[in-house]
Amino acid sequence: MVFKLSIGFLALATLASAANFRRVACPDGVHTATNEACCVFHELADFLQTNKFDSTCGEDAHEALRLTFHDAIGFSFEQGPSVGTGADGSVILFESTELMDPANNGIDDAIDNLKPLLSMFDVTAGDLVQFAGAVAVSNCPGAPQLQFMAGRPNATHPAALGLVPKPEDPVDMIFARMEDAGFSPTELVSLLASHTIARSDTLIDNRQAVPFDSTPFTFDTQVFLEVLLRGNETLPPASGEAAAQVPNPLAAQGEMRLQSDFAISQSPQTACFWQFMVNNQQAIQQGFHDAMAKLAVVGQDTSKMIDCSEAVPVPVPAVAKQATFPAGTGPELLQLACDSPFPSLATDPGQATTIPECPDGDTNLNDCPS
Ligand code: HEM
Ligand SMILES: *[C@@H]1O[C@H](CO)[C@@H](O)[C@H](O)[C@H]1NC(C)=O
Ligand SMILES: *[C@@H]1O[C@H](CO)[C@@H](O)[C@H](O)[C@H]1NC(C)=O
């Protein structure tokens, strides 16, 4: 019996070492990696989680995700590399130029947060931006684990101004801009799952952290539902960038609807795919994973890159909740431009929804840790 057990133990030990055979020990003495080039990203993930994101899906995580888009979209098939080389870190390396684009209002927070890490970790600016975004997203319950490929060379010049879509742009202009960077209208819808963890700091006068849905700290499908709800108010009426928003039913609770999100939800090219995302957690996860994998390498030669996705933390699991009409709203408000049957969803009971301002449910922005 003792003999048998030790054979079993040996066999197990052999198996375990076989599983680890290809892993290398990292210089930090803490991590192992499939490829030595990934070691620095294991260390960077720990640093970001501890010192920047507090391992939560808060403001700094949201801003890091937004930055991935604003860097990568600086690319044009039509105009060529002189106007930008995509996910190349130019947004950090040439911030004083790129911040002159009004579409980049507010991204300076994420740049200020991340740029100092360039002198602490041996990574390029483009890798830093895309990796930080992937780590950030892992903190949001329900998010997919994003792919991360390492090896973007540093940008040599800034992206041209005017390449980043704006919320007041006509929908056909937005589709054309995205196509010019390699994205179909439905891929854009998948990317816009990002707006489930998003708030505006710049569009409404004297207001910060204006949420795009009622659950801004959860990677759920509420944004796809709430963008479809007819409202009678903007927030506050005609102040700030008025053309950036359309009326929404939760204005009194502090929510806004982006004109662009609404227009995309109504376009014949995207209305059915938008509606398909409502209450379809699996679809937003898969769609966002695949579209972000593409976004993260815009303009890059992936044959020269190394897959370091293993350094991206495993995301927090989804909250076990179906999509619901927020209290005070309901199916009578739906603005549907697609003929497919709409899912039957419950309405949250009670008075109008209170939208939390911090990930822990606190309703005072000043109390949020990150
Ligand atoms: C049609 C394309 C898009 C438009 C017009 C658009 C517009 C905007 C605007 C106006 C804001 C608010 C910024 C502020 O005032 O602070 C915002 C926030 C955000 N966007 Fe987009 N966006 C688009 C696509 C995307 C994509 C593809 C991503 C994916 C990475 C993304 C991720 C975010 C995130 C995470 C935020 C929240 C930032 C925060 O809470 O601090 N957006 N977007
Ligand atoms: C990329 O640029 C940053 C910031 O200037 C620098 O710290 C880093 O060494 C550069 N990396 C490469 C590979 O040139
Ligand atoms: C919008 O509708 C709500 C609910 O019917 C109502 O309480 C509110 O006063 C309306 N706001 C405006 C500006 O009409």
TrEMBL record:
Residues 65-312 form the Plant heme peroxidase family profile domain. Its cofactor is heme b; Ca(2+). The record marks R66 as: Transition state stabilizer. It comes from the Eukaryota. Its EC number is 1.11.1.-. It holds the Pfam family peroxidase. Heme b binds at H195. Ca(2+) 1 binds at D71, G86, D88, S90. Residues 1-18 form the signal peptide. GO terms for molecular function: heme binding; metal ion binding; peroxidase activity. Gene3D superfamilies: 1.10.520.10, Peroxidase, domain 2 (1.10.420.10). The active site is at H70. Disulfide bonds join C26-C39, C38-C308, C57-C140, C272-C338. The keyword Glycoprotein applies. InterPro entries: Ccp1-like, Haem_peroxidase, Haem_peroxidase_sf, Ligninase, Ligninase_C, Peroxidases_AS, Peroxidases_heam-ligand_BS. Keywords: Calcium, Disulfide bond, Glycoprotein, Heme, Iron, Metal-binding, Oxidoreductase, Peroxidase, Signal. Binds 1 heme b (iron(II)-protoporphyrin IX) group per subunit. GO terms for biological process: cellular response to oxidative stress; hydrogen peroxide catabolic process; response to reactive oxygen species. PANTHER family: CATALASE-PEROXIDASE, THYLAKOID LUMENAL 29 KDA PROTEIN, CHLOROPLASTIC-RELATED. Belongs to the peroxidase family. Ligninase subfamily. This is Peroxidase.
